[in-house]
Amino acid sequence: MARFFTFTTLLMLLSTISFHSVAFNSDYTIGAGDKIQIAVYGEEDLSIDELYIDNSGKFDYPYLGQLSALNKTTEQLKEEIINGLKGDYLISPKVRVSIIGFRSIYVNGEVKKPGGYEYQPGLTVDKAIALAGGFTDRASRSKVYIAQAGKDELKNKVKLSATVSPGDIIVIEQSFF
Question: Domain Polysaccharide export protein N-terminal spans what residues (predicted)?
């Protein structure tokens, strides 16, 4: 009975983790600094193991020429590749587009090691501050701001439990005392 309970709990945990991973990637838009992988089943020449997306967001793809990945979801890019390959090149292409590396987040201000850090799904402000070595002695725990990537707005004041998105800039201000 204990073995069954352990197995059931483990199965539920794994399904929850995979659901969150899929949900995150399904609405995530590709941006400059991301790394993607394109796999076409049975077509080694059409598969790309690692592709870095630069500021233009464009890349050359066999037979289809220049494609743009910028501000598209992996599903949208996958459909564009399928539609381009279907008919003239392949009868029924099976394509998978995956994000294998996210663009960096940046932590500035009163932290021990300010700079850029690799984004990880589920990252929060307090975890990002920990990546940057923690607060300095002069840091204010209540004056923490995020400037979101791709938005013209200035900084938004946030709690330490706030989620961080790829490309975000976290700024920790000084306290007066």
Answer: 25-99
Other C-beta atoms within 10 Å of 174: how many? 12
Look at the chain and report how many structural domains it folds into: 2
With a cut of 50, say whether residue 15 has pLDDT above it: no
Please, is 159 exposed, middle or buried when counting C-beta atoms within 10 Å of its C-beta (0-12, 13-18, 19+)?
A: exposed
Question: Can you tell me the distance from the alpha carbon of 123 to that of 104, in angstroms, rounded to the nearest whole number?
Answer: 12
Distance CA 54, CA 70 (A): 9
Whole-number pLDDT of residue 19 = 34
Q: What is the pLDDT of residue 50?
A: 96
Tell me the CA end-to-end span of the chain in Å, nearest whole number.
58
Q: What is the pTM of this model?
A: 0.73
* Consecutive H or E run containing 48: strand 48-52
26 and 93 assigned to the same domain: yes
Does residue 31 share a domain with residue 6? yes
| 129 shares a domain with 97 | no
Residues 5 and 35 in one domain: yes
CATH code for the domain of 122: 3.10.560.10
Q: Helix or strand or coil: residue 156?
A: strand
| Mean pLDDT of the 113-133 span | 94
pLDDT in tens, 72-106: 999 999 999 999 999 878 899 999 999 999 999 99
